[in-house]
């Protein structure tokens, strides 16, 4: 995912300033961002609306991780953080399985070329 979107507004369900204090933070592998949030973060507004939270992405320097900062009321923050962790793990496992299938297919091609 190219550049990370910057916050221009605060959703109406986030109460200022109390919901902006003490955010929940999780780190996600940068390669999973597009799968989770869509191209250029296009699914972030939908995720925010459904979860009643506000998300902010912060790239970590010299790392393959991105911080996802979750703002909102206590229960919405915790629920959203859990949901995002689950999504990240699901996408990570899915990509891992895809790589294993690719390696198996490449191995089968290599074995096939030795038989000829």
UniProtKB/TrEMBL annotation:
One function term, GO molecular function aspect: mRNA binding
Keywords: Cytoplasm, Developmental protein, RNA-binding
Purpose: Involved in the maintenance of embryonic stem (ES) cell pluripotency. Dispensable for self-renewal of pluripotent ES cells and establishment of germ cells. Associates with specific target mRNAs.
Protein name as annotated: Embryonal stem cell-specific gene 1 protein
Any single Gene Ontology cellular-component annotation: cytoplasm
Subcellular location(s) of the protein: Cytoplasm
Keyword RNA-binding: yes
Biological processes per GO annotation: regulation of gene expression
Domain KH-like RNA-binding: 11-95
Residues making up the signal peptide according to the UniProt record: none
Similarity remark: Belongs to the KHDC1 family.
RNA-binding in keyword set: yes
A Pfam family annotated for this UniProt entry: MOEP19
């Amino acid at each position: 995912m190219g550049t990370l979107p910057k916050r221009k507004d605060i959703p109406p369900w986030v109460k200022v300033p109390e919901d902006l204090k003490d955010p929940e933070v999780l780190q996600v592998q940068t390669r999973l961002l597009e799968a989770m949030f869509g191209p250029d973060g296009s699914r972030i507004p939908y995720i925010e609306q459904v979860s009643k939270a506000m998300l902010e992405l912060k790239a970590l320097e010299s790392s393959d991780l991105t911080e996802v900062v979750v703002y909102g009321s206590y229960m919405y923050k915790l629920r959203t953080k859990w949901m995002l962790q689950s999504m990240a793990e699901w996408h990570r496992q899915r990509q891992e399985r895809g790589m294993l299938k690719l390696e198996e297919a490449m191995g089968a091609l290599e074995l096939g070329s030795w038989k000829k």
